[in-house]
Structure formats: structure tokens, C-alpha cells
């Protein structure tokens, strides 16, 4: 049986840091590469042991999805005595760790590398609640988030992935969600705010072109 106990492994790492006296001098980052998926071909009894748990919480979708359940993931940073325990609404990406810790460690990134990475070290260390203003998501369909508004491009892909039993977010119609008050992406506001759709569509096109 193949089974990964990530929490248990993290606990062993934390215990070792404490044993070595390094727990207060080490930044530990706990995160995931994508949203949840239960039936992804692994013999880990994930479906059998679900027991009513909802891995994506109130969000739609999961791994392979353009919906928030596919890309909004746990991101926990611990640095005892340096980072005050808190919850932040700052929008950050794992790729931002490159630029952020480059500045923090005073190790420059080679020219032309990590061009999509932003310096958000203040957000990572809890000094600021300001994160990215714009973020592009991809899970089949392309999507863009700006200031809490999310636009998902229309496409002809299947709306549901039967293989992994996950809603994909694909639709032939444009989708617009206000994530500030609709994290579950239940209310498509595209028809109600056509100018917002137009603006986000144009911005996404420019960013895809690298402009």
C-alpha cells in the first residue's frame, strides 16, 4: 500500500529542528502544489477514508481545475519569534518565493530568470497584508484574478472530469466571480458586469503575450 503521511513527516522535521536547536533560526514553509484530488490512481484509501471531510472546503473544483479548489492551497510559514501568528488575505504564489527570498537573502536572481516572480517578502513575513494585484491561473481554461475579481475564459472542454471526479470550471460562456464575497464561485456575474469581463479579458491577453 502506498500512503504518504505528510503531517507526520512534517512533525518529524519539526522535532529534529528542535533537537538541533534550530527551530527559532529556521523558516519552515508548508504548502501544496495544487488543490485536492482523491481518486488520482494512488492506492492510499483516500476515498474510503474521506468520512465526510471536504478537502476543498467551500470551494468548487480541485486538482486539474480552473476553479479556486484547484489553485487556492494551504500556505503556512513558520518562524518562531519573527513571524507573528496570524491569518493573511494577501494573494501570493509559490513562484513569488524566488524574488522574495532573493531580496531577503541578498542573493540576486540571474537576469532573465523568474520574470513572473514578485517580491512579496513583507507579506510572507506578516509585515504587510498586501500581495499580488494580478494573478493568472491555469487548469485547462485560463483564468485571471485582479483585486478579488476572477475571469475564466470560455472553452469547449468538459465541465466535469469523470476520471478524477472533479469539476473543471470549463464552460462555453465567460465566467466572472467576485471572490471577495463568493469564494465558492457560485454566482457567475459575467452578464451583470460586461465591462469588467472586457477589462479582465484584455488584461489576460496582454499578460499572455508578455506585455
Question: Your description of this structure?
Answer:
With 211 residues, this protein is α+β, with helices and mostly antiparallel strands. The protein folds into two domains: 6-91 and 133-208, Arylsulfatase, C-terminal domain (2-Layer Sandwich); 92-132, no CATH class. Helix content is 22%, strand content 15%. The chain has a four-stranded antiparallel beta sheet, with helices on one face. The longest helix is centred in the C-terminal third of the chain and has 15 residues, at 194-208.
The domain count comes to: 2
Sheet/helix structural class: alpha+beta
CATH class of the largest domain equals Alpha Beta
What helical percentage do the residues reach?
Answer: 10-25%
CATH fold descriptor of the largest domain:
Arylsulfatase, C-terminal domain
Number of strands: 8
Shape annotation: globular
Mean of the pLDDT scores?
Answer: 92
SSE succession: HEHEHHEEEEEEH
Can you count the helices? 5
What gyration radius follows from the Cα positions, in whole Å? Answer: 19 Å
Uncertain residue ranges: none
Per CATH, which architecture of the largest domain? Answer: 2-Layer Sandwich
Widest sheet: strand ordering: 3-4-5-8
Q: Report on the biggest sheet.
A: 4 strands, antiparallel
Q: Kindly report how far apart the N and C termini lie.
A: 48 Å
Beta fraction of the residues? Answer: 15-25%
